[in-house]
Amino acid sequence: MTVSDSAVKIGELSLIRHIRSEFSSALLKDVAIGIGDDAAVLRVGGREGLLISADTMCEGIHFDMTFATAYQVGFKLVSVNVSDIYAMGGTPNWFLLTAAFAPDTSEKFAKEFLSGVKDALDLYGAGLVGGDITSSKSGIVVTGIVMGFAEKPITRSGARVGDKIYVTGALGDSACGLELLRHIMAPVELDKDNGPDRPMPWPAMRPLIHRHLMPIVLKPSLGASAASAMMDISDGLALDLRRLCAESGVGAVIYENKLPMSSHMLAASELLDKDPLHFSLCGGEDYEYLFTSAEDIDTARYIGDITDTGLVMIDKNNDAKDLADCGYVHFI
Amino acid sequence: MTVSDSAVKIGELSLIRHIRSEFSSALLKDVAIGIGDDAAVLRVGGREGLLISADTMCEGIHFDMTFATAYQVGFKLVSVNVSDIYAMGGTPNWFLLTAAFAPDTSEKFAKEFLSGVKDALDLYGAGLVGGDITSSKSGIVVTGIVMGFAEKPITRSGARVGDKIYVTGALGDSACGLELLRHIMAPVELDKDNGPDRPMPWPAMRPLIHRHLMPIVLKPSLGASAASAMMDISDGLALDLRRLCAESGVGAVIYENKLPMSSHMLAASELLDKDPLHFSLCGGEDYEYLFTSAEDIDTARYIGDITDTGLVMIDKNNDAKDLADCGYVHFI
To answer: For labelling, which of A33, A59, A188, A221 has a CA lying 20 to 30 Å from the CA of B329?
Structure first.
């Protein structure tokens, strides 16, 4: 999933920089937080805290119908959007859906996709209020738009020198699950034992594959003002930590031996002859949360500290090195 | 632009019916108007009137890079979204943008597209607050999300028997402009005289082509409670009137000789050997407004009356016939 810089034809990051400089205008009425965080924070009726975010998933880029089902794509679209609301310390309330289906998309496919959307919305307690169904020239492109509320939104920009860095769960499971799917090259039924003709026993693969195909995101359990900065980990810890530090104007040091990795992911990496550290740092779509706090937090994993400047990882040999410049860049 | 029913592989309308029945759940908190109108109407802080709508445009379906420029596509995306807010009697305030660019999209293209978005937002007085930039497998797919406010939202469902039916401007210009572009088969510079090697003189074609490539939408000038029902005309008068009547549970009669058609459109239709009535009834993307009112309205064109049931057009010979079952169906 890592995209080397040389392959990046138009840098997503450079375009976003362009947008932030071009669009920062006097027209931004009642905007507490605009472009550049997990969600925008808007003021309505004098009250801050209306959140909105939009995320697009494209066939062949964000999902592959070789191994995903329509239901899973619908479910995942909602999860990745809700993740942005949770990452602001908010609660989702409303959802809009736009879907451009391909000319050969069947009605059965469309209805299964919608069923995944519905089950996920029911799970997260949000309701569908609108959208647009249309046709694409080729390939399926779906966009979720989620709105919610946060009493006290948590941004990416509040990290301060001396804060501790935390993540809410294991890293690399989703990227490792995707790698397993590339060996299987067929849709899997997540609720069935998928038989013995697999690279490893199904119960050991299932959590990884489930995490990739149909992530269920959890609201981070934090005290109201525990986190000084927060974001979801959607493009890999290394890239997302880089973003959080850039927004906060700080640096970071993290410790390789403190990065949480699941036993399933470690076993699968060995079998696949892949580096689990690469999955953890550079693999996208973890949909866990990265946050900073001046406090000691029991409910998350401490992985490092906010510093003045620089992005450093202390490896297993206690050597300091630059944090890998990797991560999932969407716009290649 | 008309899609015959036989060509409709999955009916957009049937899918939307499916969505409306499947997704009407107890989870719809603080939703005054949900799926099925130009925009959803939400309650925030006990106050009704937050509007949100999303519209997607796909390359090869909604726009054709054979004759559109990136700037025009960006501008149009904002206009068609703002049209949904104006159609509710609202004012736009915030905008989100998602764009899936193709692998061969250049940075120049992306920046020109963004420039069109920005100029349109400046024109309508809305600010960009977020979105998502990503990559598609092939073809460009862009989605606009617009939020606004209406003190007293005007829905599609308020038309009552005896109300008069109005439209705010000429019909068929955009569809006729598209037909002209299909003869030109190249991008045109809207602000230049495009020379003599054209199917008709540029000053006569320009308003039609401009209307198609880069529509500028106007807020309907209506008294606060003059309209009983309203919607924008995006898929052709015949289909959109059908939708308004269905939502209101009424019928309609319209008069062919009252349909407003521009002199440019009439001249171009003659040259193209096309029926101007077909452009007016069945052509999409007029982005004028269709509304009903119990009052006499000077600022719009009276075209018919709301009846109990049925959809009838009185033609030029004073014969009553069923209103054409035509219009632009997006999901083919």
So the answer is: A59
